[in-house]
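Review form for a predicted model. The reviewer records the input and the model, then writes brief findings.
Reviewer: anonymous (R2)
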Amino acid sequence: SLQAQGYMDFVGEDKLRVIPTTTFSAGNITQVLIEGLDTCGNSEPASPEGKVCISTALGDYYSVGTLLNASNVTLTEQLRMTGTLITIKIHMTNVADFWTWPIGFKPKYI
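Model under review:
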C-alpha cells in the first residue's frame, strides 16, 4: 500500500497527486514522497508559483493557486471580476479512530 497522509485528484488527470507529509525539525524540512506520483504543489509557502500543498502535524495547507489548478480553473481578468464556484470534497481517514485508546491521531496507510 502507498504511504502518504493524503492524495489530491486533479480534474483531467488519471493519476492522483501526493499531498507531501512534511515535518520541520531543527530548520530542516523532511517530506514523504512516492516514486512515480507527482506532488499536488510546493512545500515552500513563499514559492513564486504560490501553489502550496503540504500536510504537517499542525494541519493541511492548500493555497488558492493549488485549488484553482486542481479544479482546472484559469484565473482570468473576467473571472477575477465575476468570481467562480469550486466544490471541494474532502475525505479524511486519519480521524476515524481518534477517540479509541490511546486517544489521539494514529498513522494510517491507504
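Findings: The radius of gyration is 16 Å.
Further findings: The longest strand covers residues 21-25.
Recommendation: see findings above.
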